[in-house]
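Decapping nuclease
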Amino acid sequence: MAEASGKTPSDVDLSSTASVVDLVEPLTNLSLDPSKKPSRNKKAPRSKAGKQNYSFNPDDWKVDEEDVMIPAAAIAGKSILSLPKTTDNHQRRTETSTIATIGEDKAKILSTKVLTYYSTDSQFKRHLESAESLTFYAPPRFLQHRNGTFKYNLFKGWQGYRPIVYPRKLPRLGGTLAVVGWYLDSIRNNLGNDGDIPTIDFISHKGPMVKLASLASPDCRHGVSLEMNVVTYGKHILLSNNSYRDIEGPMSLKFGYLGHKFENVVCSKDWPENGKMPRKEYPMHNNETFKLVMNIELGKKNDDVSTRGTSPIISLAFPSEMDCRLQPDVPIETLSNYAELKTHSSGGSEHSFKRKLFKAYLQANIVGMGEVIIGFRSFSGFLENIVRYKVSDIPDILHKDPKSGEISERLKRQFSPEDSMDWLHSCLEWIKNNIEFGREREVAWRVSYDPKSSTIVMVKIEDPEIVEKITGYVYDDICVRSLDHQTQ
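Predicted structure tokens:
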């Protein structure tokens, strides 16, 4: 791990670290059989908050600038990548080329590295090599009553809650570029200009990458909104969401609050020795985060990482928010010691649960987390149960037929982690093959998902005014300079 003095960060090999930390039993008896989700409790209490009409003022959610719109007249070219019709048929077509059918040899994650890490404090300031915002999974015992039931209301505090919306005038990838640039500078300072500086093809966020990967499953395409701006800087391809936050209305905001609230009540900045925390009130905020900056290599099993220049290996760097650690006093680089936290309605269908679990699996697996922890709640917001899932066990849970209990070939095709990583690799390779390097601030691209045609569409823009908007939207001069000069 890189030190503040600029020492070279060490690589993390998931194959060698996966067994470093044995997954521990929970502090309380919150864990159930991970192969089963809790049955619907028809007599679950309903909160008064759940019956209220929550106030929603759109003015509270306005941001400084609108998303960059692309008029038809500004489009200088278009490429189309078709999603696989089924998971058995990987024939993908574009207007300019055809990607060959992929058989057993599918692309996967070849290597994973932790480049560095940072914390964002309550004032949105980033602190490199700081773990001040890192939390631990330590649910207090008062969440569970003596008879084993839950009655904690996750809607508590909702009416006074106003989540932070970053001003749109801020560059979307500014902080990411600064951190990645700082990492590359630390390598240069130690190895010199002739050192083995990692090649990074794409710099992005984890969210768009997981969305792209999930599109391989037809069940995960409904309601997906994906629109990314693409620009280049040197040999790097920068991808950033065009919409920073999807705002669909008060209902989506309410359930987003439930997720943040769940994280607050089951996590603590301090690890309690006896498993008890004197916590009764939980002020809600969504601004403090801890992130690992990851570098993953995607390619086929026969690809040699040492021959990146001549093989279709894709190198991707992105910050990954880590919800919590499972145990204290474990090196920060130990990826299996982290968990992804989610909430889900206990009254939902088996299919909706598996769809949620599959997406959570992709989020956790792409960075090597050890667990996914789901808080099952009633529609009115009461926490009813907490279940911990080992990430390595989730594929079997997804593929098990709920009636027969046997592994279903249909479900294996429906929720295929292998197909998702293979599809993500194909998308990134396609984007890389259809852009032009060396024309910073002259050309930009917009990549979007068209659900009607099940295609990924990439349009080329050369209109100077729009290109300048997109370029400034993704990065600014100060952040870009950090790729070449030491970040102060």
